[in-house]
Write a structure and sequence with these properties.
2 domains, four-stranded mixed beta sheet, Immunoglobulin-like, 1 helix, alpha+beta
């Protein structure tokens, strides 16, 4: 049996919504995600008309639909908004640094001592020398 349809929400087409076959109330490995235009399609001979599918997306209410309802279906997922009673923000400044536990860097790399710079300098010098030799020999 083939199930297919389009999934939308309050912002329009919903890409990435999951459509999953349920057996005995448990999710199975048969499922898909909607594409960029909200379209999904599952074509499998194991799907029966009374099988249920879970259609879900983060932040939207999950819907359960029978396979018989998913024949070129237009599914609208509503926002799932829960209001919070209270939001608590805490901050920790951590352990106060010990000013006597300072260890300076033993060696600080300069840009002109890095291997990348030195190798590129050698490459430029070599290329320049080769070009100079070619011009002199002509």
């Amino acid at each position: 049996m083939k199930v297919s349809g389009y999934i939308t929400d309050s912002y329009g087409k919903t890409d990435g919504a999951t459509i999953q076959l349920l057996r005995n109330g448990q999710g199975t490995t048969l499922g898909v995600a909607s594409n960029q235009v909200g379209y999904f399609e599952i074509d499998n001979e194991d799907i029966k008309p009374n099988d249920e599918f879970r259609i879900s997306f983060i932040g939207l209410k999950t819907q359960i639909k029978k396979a018989s309802q998913l024949q070129d279906a237009q599914i609208y997922l509503e926002d799932d908004v829960e209001e919070l009673d209270e939001v608590v923000i805490t901050a920790s400044i951590g352990k106060k640094p010990n000013k006597f536990n300072f260890t300076p860097k033993k060696w600080e790399e300069k840009w002109y001592t890095s291997p990348v710079f030195l190798l590129s300098l050698v490459a430029v010098a070599t290329t320049g020398t080769i070009i100079y030799i070619i011009k002199k020999t002509r």
